[in-house]
Amino acid sequence: MENLDELLDVENELNQRWPETKIEPTVERIKALAHVLGDPHTTYPVVHIAGTNGKTSTSRMIDALFTRIGLRTGRYTSPHLQLATERISVDGAPITPERYVEIYRDVEPYLGMIDAKHEVPMSKFEVLTGMAYAAFADAPVDVAVVETGMGGTWDATNIADGKIAVITPIGIDHVEYLGGDIAGIAKEKAGIIKPGSVALIAEQPAEVMKVLLERVAEVDATVARQGQEFGVVRRDVAVGGQLLTLQGLGGLYEDIFLPLHGAHQAGNAALALAAVEAFFGAGADRQLDVEAVRQGFATVTTPGRLERLRSAPNVFVDAAHNPHGARALATALDEEFGFRKLVAVVAVMADKDAEGILAALEPVVHEVVLTTNSSTRAMDPDLLAGIAMTIFGEDRMVVQPRLDDAIEEAIRLVEEEELSGGGVIVTGSVVTAGEARALFGKEPA
Fold first, then answer.
1. All CATH 3.40.1190.10 domain ranges in the chain, comma separated
2. Whole-number Å distance between alpha carbons of 263 and 361
3. What mean pLDDT comes out for the span 410-418?
């Protein structure tokens, strides 16, 4: 495909820049880029999402609800699973490779100019953020659903003045940039809460909530908290997902089928619903159309989030890449599937808490296959095995240096039992999840 070759050319150019894992705390460069592009981020309202886990799933739910209600949406998420175009969606679908290339070529002439004026050239993420904001203005969209890359205050996306700020559960991740102090991480993420905005906050550890509420008071924002002003009233596991009753800001929403697994996704759904209600100014006396909400949630897909890639035996993939995400995954696997034998295929990035991820999975996993992915940042499988040894013990682990071999090995381990009710979960990183999807012939999200 010629357009894919052009897309790869653009990706190669972008990859010459600072990677997304590297940030310099300033928004001056992205402000300069946005300014020469005509400040596109000021031409539509923004729903801004920060947090450690659940950002992409919550963004996709918010997008689905807005779409069902009849708004034209733009959605910016990161990182991508398989193809860069997944990051910039209009009307609920990724832009085409041709459009991605076209937007890049539109902004490209300005990049050198901005690079020349600053000590540090623009990072890849800054350029992508400029591209997304430009694409949304061009569409034009009625609302943009924007996920931060890392952090909040200094994130490139934060030049937008989000009228709605959504804070998903906060844990510890990206320690090398955000630090290991959870209150400090919360303070950085709280930076998306702007004066006069409405902040919707997921359930948080007490020290995190304290920091977020201090920010709300400081900028005179309005706040609604999960478990207080909104939340999950009831959740029943159903075939292919779950059936929910949600308490929204505007009332009760019953009989909502969510085609996703896990209590964490029910929490994300409550958060997404409250965000959309807040956007429309719903409150005690104003409820969204319940049928539209049902239809919106019924259409939600979250690729790479406890997604089934095949059955008999069941092979699932999940992008969990920190202990917080791995715990949510383990709970969902345990509560909703009750596998007689579950084998995990794990490949993680070298800068992640591999020990924490493996320890979170251990109680629900019978055996683990340790492997790697194609990223230059991936942890060596033998190093990962050394960490796994203390958690799983020698008899419950296997090393397979190639991901495809590792998945085959896991399927073999499940099938050798000759009993039904076996499963495989491929996890540890977004890259691992994306490569597993590709191996099973899944089209990019």
1. 2-298
2. 16
3. 91
pLDDT of the residue at 176: 54
Query: In the chain, how long is the greatest CA-to-CA distance?
Result: 65
Dihedral of alpha carbons 53, 249, 224, 278, sign? positive
Architecture of domain 2-298: 3-Layer(aba) Sandwich (3.40)
User: In angstroms, rounded to a whole number, what is the distance separating the alpha carbons of residues 231 and 37?
Assistant: 40
Q: Are 29 and 126 in contact (CB under 8 A)?
A: yes
pTM score of the predicted model: 0.95
Residue ranges, CATH 3.90.190.20, the chain: 307-439
Q: What CA–CA distance (Å, rounded) separates 6 from 4? A: 5
pLDDT at 2: 66
Residue 421: which pLDDT band, with cuts at 50, 70 and 90? confident
Is the separation of the CB atoms in 131 and 104 below 8 Å?
Answer: yes
Q: What is the fold of 307-439?
A: Protein-Tyrosine Phosphatase; Chain A (3.90.190)
pLDDT, position 173: 59
Q: What is the mean pLDDT of residues 245-250?
A: 97
Q: What Å distances lie between residue 137 and 46, 72, 84, 103, CA to CA?
A: 12, 11, 20, 12
Q: How confident is the model at residue 19 (pLDDT cuts 50, 70, 90)?
A: confident
